[in-house]
Amino acid sequence: MSPGSNARPSPARLAKLTPPRLPAVLARPRLFRLLDRASKHAVVWITAPPGYGKTTLVASYLKARKLKTLWYQVDEGDADVATFFHYLGLAVQQASPRSRTPLPKLTPEYLPGLPTFTRNFFQELGRRLPTPAVLVLDNYQLVPSDSKLHDVVAYAIEALPPGITLVALSRVGPPASLARAQANRIMDVVAKEPLELTTAETRALMQLYGKAGKEPPNRTLLTHVQRKVGGWVAGVMLLLRHAMSHRGVTPLATGQPPEVLFDYLAREVLHHLPDQEQSFLMRSAWLPKMTAGMTARLTGYTRGGEVLARLARTHYFTEQRFEQEPMFEYHPLFREFLQ
Fold this sequence. Notes:
By secondary structure, the chain is of the alpha/beta class. It contains 17 helices and 7 strands. A 5-stranded parallel β-sheet has the order 2-3-4-1-5, with helices on both faces. Helix 10 crosses helix 11 (about 235-245). The longest helix has 15 residues, at about 80-95. About 30% of the residues are buried.
């Protein structure tokens, strides 16, 4: 269905506007308090690698705080800003059915005046929503770098009234178009470190799984899980499920991570890369730390520095530190997977 069609939207497309379903999840009061403070800003940008629980955290927080929410699942199609305005307009209609007049569509004649159209659209959105309310843009990293949607978000921030917060969930940091919002301190950025599970939270997760009728986790299992994956939420969950299905800690005690962890890393990271870059990563993994020059000498691949910088920028289990020249380091589990 084209954005300008009057046909009834398909259930698949309206899934873009549906918050995630939450199973039994671990409440994280310390992060709820962090979001309470962050939401005093007009924009909250949450950036972390895959599997750090961004979506679950925000969905559980909004449910706990009983906040009116517009949840928007971003995908590659939203690079076309007309598509974005079309589906966001549908979301507003669902949230405010008493307003019978649909929000305007971004037709070609409005494109030259995109800033004005955007501000008018979001001012009207603000009038139709009760406050406090939250607009969530999930999976924002799927927006191409050259999309006008980045500019639309910047214009929207200027137009949203007090009481409506925009929350973006992304594997990458804010785009350059939001530099002004950062400089003016109307945006708060929450990075991966606070999202990592504490020891107490990991133990609570184990207790949550124990209540599901499986073998209760023990201190030995907790030690193995923390040693292998630290506070990475998806890693903890995968190891716990593996341990429960294999009756305890014995399979983890061998020192070899379960295959399910490697499957996750392959699916989330490696399979998205060209063969040449995959080969580069596997060969460079024998270096505990590396510069672009070191990897070029080891692998013969001269664009390795670009690959590593991109992985670090998008938080794909690669860290970048600036010394005399950029130094890169893989997450220990990712390095073991590559080896």
